[in-house]
Amino acid sequence: MGAPHDAPAVVLDGVSLCYRLARQRIPSIKEYALHWIRGALTYQELWALRDVSVTLRRGDRLGVVGANGAGKSSLLKVISGVLKATQGRATVNGRIAPILELGIGFDYELTGLENAYLNALFLGHSRKDVDERIGDIVEFSGLGDFVHSPVRTYSSGMLARLGFAVVTAWVPDVLLLDEVLAVGDVHFVKKCEERLDGFRRAGTTLVFVSHAMESIRRNCNRCIWLDKGHVRAEGSPEDVLGLYEGEAPPA
Question: Which single residue of 36, 126, 154, 176 has CA 20 to 30 Å from 160?
Answer without folding.
Answer: 126
